[in-house]
Amino acid sequence: MNASDIIHYGHDFVRRNLVDLPLEHWETPNVCGWWSSKLIIAHLTSFELMLVEVLRSFQGGGPMPYLDLMNGQGGQVFNDTQIAARQDGSAADLYAEYNAAAAESHRLVGLLDPALLARPGTLPWYGQEYALDDYIVYQYYGHKREHMAQINVFKDALKAAGQLPGA
Q: Is the pLDDT of residue 167 over 70?
């Protein structure tokens, strides 16, 4: 597995699927539960920042507030906290934060030895049978694909209603 490629293609998939979503539709609710597309990006941003923490932990570490919150209080509290912290930001600012975090993830993963990325057991809190590259595929690449599918269903509804080109 090539973790750098996985991070690149996951981010590229998000970028390509958002390019034709006009900003005026980023705050329309109920794209994923009550979340808008903007809040989906806020959610993905918080996960991307958590990945930055995890990758930094393999290079000397540092504080891990995102991972600590996720592991300590669970996914629902993590999501609620991160959405609340970002919901008042503009779509453009949130997307810029997401892009910056994705660029940092890509940079950091490129600094790691591929053998380390593939070694099971390096993330005991995730599962001894998993390697860092598994974590990246399941928690990041797959996660982005899932949420972009939701945004694409929303875009299809906009097209059907004549609110997006391509109807």
A: no
